[in-house]
Amino acid sequence: MKRFEDKIIVITGAARGIGRTVADLMLEQGAKHVYSLDVATGEEMANFTQKQVDISNTDDVKKVINEIIIEGKQIDVLVNNAGVTRDGLIEKTTEANWDFVVDINLKGTFNVTQAVVPFMKEVGKGSIVNLSSVVGEYGNIGQTNYAATKAGVIGMTYTWAKEFTRKGENIRTNVVAPGYVNTEMVQSVPEKIIERLKEKNPMKRLAEPIEIANAVAFLASDEASFVNGHVLSVNGGMRI
């Protein structure tokens, strides 16, 4: 039996990057269907459906999750992957840039989880994996907004790990906290900065998306059936 056989999976931000790699991996490992919640669109494939939605909009999220339940009858796994950055030192961070990052990274994670959990509770089981960051664990210069949201994701996860199991439900909530990953977002950074990031890492390289996806898949699967409220750091030993 494959890891995600007969599972219906929802992933935010799965049009590209880490989210798309997670989607492809879960489909390879037997997922019945993967739904992507994203403002962007990417290449569709068998058993992969994109739902174009702004996850910071509470009503739109609820509508889309209801559509998925009608179509797929269940949601077994939720991966809150979507994230954005608007970097700057605090004195140069505008209110608009603060709000944009908080709305997607923190409020979006809250919105989607709030919409999905009632359906998981109906069947008494499910798995939620939230994507944080090494920046959420240790902070980083010029990323006050991003660090705050990714630290907040960890705090929400610890809370949900207790809330979603308190009546005997088997709904686990965990975190993967990546370091710097070789995605389109990082590839747009000047080469000299990328080299500096590599040099700071004990392993002297960036992570590949599949290395993050493997960690997400483990926590989402039944192989991690007694892992709850855990932060899995996948950063090559980096502490910023």
Which SSEs are present, and which pair or pack?
Blueprint: E1 8-12, H1 17-28, E2 33-38, E3 48-52, H2 58-72, E4 77-80, H3 95-123, E5 125-131, H4 134-138, H5 144-163, E6 170-178, H6 184-187, H7 191-200, H8 209-220, E7 231-234
Parallel strand pairs: 1-2, 1-4, 2-3, 4-5, 5-6, 6-7
Explain how this protein is built.
- The protein contains eight helices and seven strands; from the N terminus they run βαββαβαβααβαααβ.
- The protein has 240 residues and is α/β, with parallel strands linked by helices.
- The chain has a single domain, classed as Rossmann fold (3-Layer(aba) Sandwich).
- It has a seven-stranded parallel beta sheet with strand order 3-2-1-4-5-6-7, with helices on both faces.
- It starts with 7 loop residues before the first strand and ends in a 6-residue tail after the last strand.
- The model has no long low-confidence stretch (mean pLDDT 96).
Separation, N- and C-terminal Cα atoms: 40 Å
Structural class assignment: alpha/beta
Q: Would you tell me the overall average pLDDT?
A: 96
**Strands across the major sheet, in which order?**
3-2-1-4-5-6-7
Low-pLDDT stretches are none
Please state the overall shape, judged from the principal axes of the Cα atoms: globular
Q: How many distinct beta strands?
A: 7
Helix content: 40-55%
Report Rg. 17 Å
Domains counted in the coordinates: how many? 1
Largest pleated sheet: 7 strands, parallel
Relative strand content? 15-25%
**CATH architectural grouping:** 3-Layer(aba) Sandwich
Which homologous superfamily in CATH is the superfamily? NAD(P)-binding Rossmann-like Domain
The helix tally amounts to 8
What is the CATH T-level topology? Answer: Rossmann fold
Following the backbone from N to C, one meets helices and strands in this order, namely: EHEEHEHEHHEHHHE
Q: What is the CATH class name?
A: Alpha Beta
Domain Ketoreductase: 7-163
Protein name: 3-oxoacyl-ACP reductase FabG
Family: Belongs to the short-chain dehydrogenases/reductases (SDR) family.
Organism: Candidatus Vagococcus giribetii
